[in-house]
Amino acid sequence: MILVTGAAGKSGTAVIRALAAQGVPARGLVRRPEQEAPLLAAGAVETEVGDMRHPGSLAQACRGVDAVYHICPNMSPDEQEIGARLIAAAQEQRLSHIVYHSVLHPQVEAMPHHWAKMRVEEMLFTAGLPVTILQPAAYMQNIAGVWGQILDEGIYRVPYPVETRISLVDLEDVAQAAARVLTDPDLRGGTYELCGPQPLSQADVAAILSKTLGRRVRAEAIDPLEWRQGAEAAGIGGYQLDGLLKMFDYYRQVGFTGSGWLLAQLLGRPATTFEQFIQRLIPT
Ligand SMILES: NC(=O)c1ccc[n+]([C@@H]2O[C@H](COP(=O)([O-])OP(=O)(O)OC[C@H]3O[C@@H](n4cnc5c(N)ncnc54)[C@H](OP(=O)(O)O)[C@@H]3O)[C@@H](O)[C@H]2O)c1
What we know:
Blueprint: E1 2-4, H1 10-21, E2 26-30, H2 36-42, E3 46-49, H3 57-62, E4 67-70, H4 79-92, E5 97-101, H5 112-125, E6 131-136, H6 147-153, E7 155-158, E8 165-166, H7 171-183, E9 191-194, E10 200-201, H8 202-213, E11 218-221, H9 224-233, H10 238-254, H11 261-267, H12 274-281
Parallel strand pairs: 1-2, 1-4, 2-3, 4-5, 5-6, 6-9, 7-11
Antiparallel strand pairs: 8-10
The chain binds NADP nicotinamide-adenine-dinucleotide phosphate (NAP).
Residues 6, 8-11, 31-32, 51-53, 71-74, 101, 103, 136, 138-139, 142 line the site of NADP nicotinamide-adenine-dinucleotide phosphate.
């Protein structure tokens, strides 16, 4: 049995589905009871309700499992404390393997949520247990947040220049790679960057949207200050708001790209292109 934390989220549900497709039993840790039924429907064999910030929740969730796939809540100010607690629980239960869902380029101090993941990676190296680390780039699925606007207005708005290149990766590919490293002992102990096959600019993304949707979509950079007002109005604040603005600024200066070679090796097939991903979204 494999414990998946953050299981009701985008990443967690995708990993649960990928494990179920391979017949690997998984227990999902969710925060709220109403998240249990959908997760069981997605293929989890068991669910456990708990808050990763509360002492005892992770210890309880680790009881009776062989390995853990740890997904910390997105943009969490508690990433390091939760990581330390997870490691302690895994040590206590003598788990055979910890796999950590990190992020591409955790070494970047300018992005605090990346830097926190690097500190967790560092703790894992000294935990005395077999550890594997996955470092996914930004998901293609993030486009869901602006999908309505793309369809309604034909505009793809981003809070950084339209020339910014990002190696967007399909979360379904990431989840299949996760299932592979959880089940193939030869891959244990590695750190794997998971990038999509193309370092696309945002103008490229809009061009692919235009081609695939059969209507013109143009990319437009919005001022981060304008983005900030919208985010604050939507209730985003504190650590999350600060982290997102720093991430956009880093993207503006550097982009967020890497090599897609390794993901294709793990999948044993070419990784999904952005065009294939959009085609999958369009109802047939
Ligand atoms: N999005 C990307 O492009 C991307 C790329 C690379 C890596 N990542 C990493 O992937 C991870 C997951 O991201 P995601 O987009 O899948 O997140 P998500 O969809 O927001 O899911 C997070 C899940 O964690 C749960 N949760 C929140 N606080 C919790 C707590 N205290 N105790 C237990 N559960 C809690 C949430 O439950 P509620 O529904 O109750 O809030 C939700 O089900 C993050 O660490 C992120 O940095 C993301």
